[in-house]
Each structure stands twice: as C-alpha cells, then as structure tokens.
What we know:
By secondary structure, the chain is α+β, with helices and mostly antiparallel strands. It has five domains: 86-245; 250-344, Macroglobulin (MG2) domain (Immunoglobulin-like, Sandwich); 350-404 and 414-456, Immunoglobulin-like, CATH 2.60.40; 462-550, Sandwich (Immunoglobulin-like); 561-721, no CATH class. Helix content is 32%, strand content 24%. A four-stranded antiparallel β-sheet has the order 10-9-12-13, with no helix packed on it. A four-stranded antiparallel β-sheet has the order 19-18-22-23, with no helix packed on it. Helix 10 runs antiparallel to helix 11 (643-659), helix 10 (624-639) packs antiparallel against helix 14 (707-721) and helix 11 (643-659) crosses helix 13. The longest helix is centred in the N-terminal third of the chain and has 34 residues, at 146-179. The radius of gyration is 35 Å and the shape is extended. It starts with 8 loop residues before the first strand and ends in a 17-residue tail after the last helix. The relative contact order is 0.08. Residues 1-95, 113-125, 400-418, 555-619 and 725-738 have low confidence and may be disordered. Keywords: Membrane, Transmembrane, Transmembrane helix. Residues 72-95, 588-624, 719-738 are annotated as: Disordered. The chain crosses the membrane at residues 562-582. This is DUF4129 domain-containing protein.
Amino acid sequence: MVNEQQSLIVHQENSFLLSDAKSLIVTLPVGRTIVLATLLLCLPVAAMGGVVAAPEAGPGEGAATVGAFALQDDEDDEEPVRHRNPDEYDGDGDGETVERWLADRLEDSASDLGDGETALSGYVDAEYRERLTQYLEVAVGDESDSSASTDAQREHDELLATVAEYNETKAEYDAAREAGDDERAYDRARDLEALAIEIATASDQLLEAYDAISAGSDADLSAAAASVEAMNESVQTTQHDIREREFAATELTVDASQSSISYTDPLVGTGEVQTAAGEPIANEDIRLAVGNQEIQTETDETGAFEFEYRPISVPADTDTLTVAYLPDPKAGQLGAETTVPTEIEPVEPALSMSSVEPDPLAYGDELSLETTLSVDGEPVDAAVPMAVTIDGTDVGTLPSDPDAEYDSLIGTANTSSAANVTVPATVPAGEQALTVEPAVTDRALTPTSATTTVTITETEPELAFEAARVDDETVALEGTVMVDDDGVADVAVGIEADGTHLETLSTDETGTFEGTISLPADAADEDVELIAVHDDVETNLAETAIAATVAPPGGAGGLPTWAWAVVAVVVLAGSGAAGYWWRVRGPSTTDAPSVAGDRRGPDEAAVETAAQTPRSPAAPEPDPAVAQPLLAHAADRLAAGDPDTAVQTSYHAVRASLAVHLEATGTLTHWEFYRAYCDTAADRTESLQAVTEGYERAAFGRDGVADETAEPILERARELCGPADSSTDTDQFTAADD
C-alpha cells in the first residue's frame, strides 16, 4: 500500500516507481533517520517537453531543499548509560554545541577502549566512523588545510580496517586453540603479530595527522587522539600475551670491524644468536636484515656468524645501522635486533641501459627496460628502483618500492612488486628522450642517469559525445575518449559550433568529459551542429573530430544517456501513482470516470476530449532515437537476471518513444496512455497491450514476471519503438560516434 509519507521507492538499480514523491526516508543503524528531500530536477526535456516540480512541504514537514538532509532523533533512540544524549545540550544547533557533543562522544569511545580488548569488536562500527567524520567537518571547517583532514580520514579508515582484521584473526586464533589445532593457532599468531605492528605504525601516522590539523586550526582533537592511543594500547597488550605464549625469544649481538663504510669498503661484521635461555642457534643457515638489505649466512656450533655489508640505497646520513635476526617462519621463534654505529661514504656508480621494449612505443604500451648499475665495472648485486621519464614526463618507477621493510619479530620481508610502467597520452608523438635514474637521492650510491631515444607513434582515439538542449542558449554535453575500450585521462577536447570555439573540456580518469556549453545568441531557434575536436599536438593521440546536431527546445533531438534517468522519472510521475488502482480496473476499453474524479488535471481532460474527436487514420510514427538507451538498459537487466526491471524499462522506452507525438501524456496512467495511443494506431494495439500488461505485472504484481515472459515483452517493445513497418535493432542508434 502507498506509504503515508508518499515516499520514493527505490527499485533495483536505476529503475524506480514514483508515488507522488515528497521525500526519501532512510533509517540508519545508529538509530537516527535521514530525511532526504527529493525535489526532481526541473530540467527541460527536449523529447518530452515537460518539467517536474516538487509539491510544497505541508505543515510540520519543514522546508524542502534540493540535496539537503537533516538528522532527526527517533523517539525510541536510546544511548548506553555513559553516553550523553544530545538533547541534554541546550544549544540551538550552532557549530560550537555540535562540536562539544561530538567531542564528548569521542571521549566516551576512548573510555570504552580502556575497558580492554573486548571493546574492540564493538568499536569498529559505522557510528564511530560517522562521529569522527562529523567532528572533523565541524571542528576543522575551513580553518585548516583540507589535505590534512583528508589525510586524517584516510589514515583513520586504514587503521580501523586493520583493527577489524586483527579482531577477525584473533577470533580464528582463539578457535584454533580451543580446538587443539596448534599449527593453525601458531600461523594465526604470526598473522596477529604482523597486524599488531601495522596497527602501531598506523596509529602513529594518524596521530601525526591530528597534530597537523590542530596546528592549522583551533580544533581540539585530544579526544580523538585518546581513542586512537587507547585502541593501539589494547591491541599491543593483547598481542604481548599471545607473543609470550606462542614464540620463543632470541638474543642477537653484533660487532663491526670499522665504523666508516662505503660500497667499495664494506662493513665486515661478526655476531652471535641464541635463545633467551642462552642456548646457541647452532649450525643453521640464518637470514639477517642489515639496513634495507637481506643477507644470508650460517652459524657455527656456538651460534657465531660473519657477514659482509655493502651499503647501496641506505640514506647517506645514516649514523646507526640496524641489524636484525630473521628467524625461520616455522621455527617458533621471535626475531631479535641490535644496532651498530656507522658512517656512510657515498660512491658514484655507472648506469647503462641496454634495451627498451617494445620498439616503437605507443599509448598504453608497457615498458620493459634492461639497465645495469655498476661500481668500478662490477654490477651492483641488488635491485635499485629506477625512475623512468619520457620527454620529461614521469611514467613510473621500476621496481616500485625503494626500501624493503623487515619484520624482525617474525622474520618476514615486506616489499612491493614491480610497478607497471606504461606510456601515457601526455607524451608527444615522435622521437623522444627516455631517461632512467635512481628513484631516491642522498643514498650510499649517488644519483646517476642513462638516456636513450625512443619513437612514440600516434594512436587513433575513439571520440564520442552526446548533447541535448537545456534551454535556448545552453547545451548539456557528455562524451568519452577511448583507446581499445579503455578511457584516456587528461585529454583536452575542444567544442566548436559554426567555426567558433565554445569551450575546452578535459577527460577524467575514466576518459569521460562533460559540461554545460553556452551557445551563440542567434542559435536559440535552430538546429546547432556541435563539433568535438581533439587536436593537441602535445599528446600521442591522433587528431580526431566528431559532430552531433542538437535541436532547439521543443524539438525531438536525442538526450544524452546520462539524462535518461530524468526521462524515466518524468514518465513515471504520470504512470506510477495510479498503479494500485489499475490492478483491479485492468485494460477496459469502455468509458469510465477519471481516476482523480473531480480532481482531474487539465492534461487528463484534454486527453478525454481528444479521445472523442475523430483522428486521422495515420498512426503517429515513433521516434527510435528517444528509446534506444532505455532498450539497451532493459536488455542488460534481462541478461543480468532481473526481468522485472527489464520489463519496466522496456515500457518506459515505449512510452518515451510514442509520447513525443502525442499531447498531454504526462499525467496519464499506463492504461490511459494505452487507449490514447491506440486511437491512432489500431494495428499496434496488440503489441502495446502486451507491453502494458507486462509492465503492470512487473511493477505491481505480487510475483513479477519470469525470464521467459520478459523476453517476448522486450521484443514487442523493440517493435513499438521502431518504424511502423519494421523492427528496430537496439544497436542502430548512436547520437554521435566515429
């Protein structure tokens, strides 16, 4: 039954039913309600010629504002005892009052965490995330650098995600222990150790982000900082107990032969490794992490070892070198580390590049480079990250991670895989210089570079766009620049009309450009041919252009695909409200009172009058261009196993296609529209009746429609949207394509 709030009912993906919509009511898990004002955009639709306006808010409803929403407390909203009710604050909604309330909630969260690890699973929830987001927006506002707040949000989300993963892994660990599965418990304990280290690091980074916000504004983030510290402390306390239970501690000692070292004068070190009980880890192959390199050696019967270390990408100003023992993952041991004083003397290497593939290069090609870094003619036995540029444009780094990060406690190395270095569109075509050089500076090996010449060939892009009039002087436009079905970012597209440049648009990361273009004043009442042009010589994309014609307001020009959501709303505004009434009435062809009785609108009266007036026997010709985007969407929904949406969208396509040649169709129900059209197209009555009946079952029927029923309905819709004597293939229409 129709809701008293006359709400907008969202159905599946982009299909929806409209029942005199005033507002969308959404209840959140936190016990509050968002009231989203649903004012349909008053966008003139060229093919429909109609607009939709929201009704005025009734008493007590509040002012309706496009895109605005307010939080309303439910009457039964209850908070835990310690949490203070926002109603206790007597403020009138000013920022200071909201800030104080949110800050108190964050302090309560910090207190929750102080209760121990059991609070963690309930802590990582939507409410806390929402509270912090609101607090940052209110407390920070425009006073500080927005990037600092963005960084804080990102660090905060990453920290909560890691804590959530820790909780899940901890539950698996507890289950394995309870089941007596020692091997699985040990594996989960190692995972927990790594996650605990990540949480400690992420907590520090988030606290630094809070400090940056506080330094640039008057925001007091002490409560949020307290909650982060409490979260980290709870995790580390829990992990300490697991570590003591699952792993055997080890001890490491290292002595260096000299303090001043370089790549040509390496550090020669000796050391010993043993358990905390003093037992040597004897006669074993072991791994050491020295600086950011991994070195393998072996121990003797006393646990003693020797190693040699040549500094490569360690910072040149390093004065203390960390050496860590990395135990075998299955040894049941914790690692150990120590430090030795040192002084780095930088050495200049030589860099050569032997090959670049493919040759020539084009947009999107992935580069394969062979480079050799050497000192005194001997290759450096380590992967040094190299930054790659073409014609001065940074195209990536191989490999991507300049430093390996070692977890000495559980003996793991965390390194990033090599990045994909591809040719961007912003590199000009022709002979260009390709340069490689170490990606980091001020290291033990000083910067050097190698350069070669490569040929960049032009690539033919696929340029397409659609446009529709917004008013006499404005056109809404959307298009894409694609290569091999992939969008090309950062491409400039010029828009011209009658030899005059109107606007330059740029593609986003998906290859899409869009905008609103102002037309010349003398084009208000005539068709305008718009030309989209890409002719930027500073790219490797070939020059290309495509044209599309837009009709004056009231014409039958095609709409952009993205505007068809508005078309669907406009159509449904007239067809959805009477759906329940027509469940019992059906497709009667006899005269009957209007659905609205004495409250009929002028359009309804016009249709009733028109139905009594003799008409020309010639049926109005449907407009295929209007319906094809909707038919394509219907086919997609049917293929995706959603026959109800497919049938409803098919009906909207038929109605949009046929309505452009009829008058006063915006307020007609589906069966009134059926009769109005069939008066002029008796030969299509059977097909339109089949589609209309299918729509009614899909939209209002208890069981909907089956896949095998939806397919013939979609076929009937294609026939109705095509010329009177033929079917229309849904792939025939393209507003503008090359």
